[in-house]
Amino acid sequence: MRKITFLLSLFAFIINFESKSQIKIAKLQYNGGGDWYANKTALPNLISFCNENLLTDIAKEEANVEVGSPEIFNYPYVYMTGHGNVVFTDYEAENLRTYLTSGGFLHIDDNYGMDKFVRLEMKKVFPELDFVELPFDHSIYHQKYRFDNGLPKVHEHDGKRPQGFGIIYKGRLVCFYSYESDLGNGWEDQHIHNDPEEIRQQALKAGANIISYAFTHFE
User: Fold this and answer.
1) Architecture of domain 2-216
2) Which residues belong to any copy of the DUF4159 domain (predicted)?
């Protein structure tokens, strides 16, 4: 039933996207104590950038959606961020898997400290699959904006290069994981992190590419 509901929602989303009607994206609310609510200004700024530069018509404020909620099937793109612990119940993992295998898209954006938790929990969702690093010629890096060297580096933490990982189910990228990049911080209001405008623009363009990919690769 949930899959049928999602397919109906997806059909409505496709019609809305093609007719420029307003759609909505969501931030993932998870358990475990991690700050899922981090980067409060990030998605509104990304939405504004996409509406202006991609000519989308996304609602200005994102929704918050729980991992196990049937409401997740209403959103073509779900954003997950934070710094700490993440825990999915078996039911939540099943719900998230159904969402992703039915056409949904999850963007996990490590805000520093999520890596060991999110990898473990996503194994509950796809026990048969692993994250793989996406090559620089992957189309997610080549939507409206070209990123020939993959993700931009927004904030430095451990001296590691930014990496984009994916979970690929039956040939489709269903989950994109931005690691050691801190895209969400780059999307935030400038005064929060005092990032140079050039860096913020690179982060917003990379985010717009991810949105564009999610909106056009649902099969």
Assistant:
1) 3-Layer(aba) Sandwich (3.40)
2) 24-215
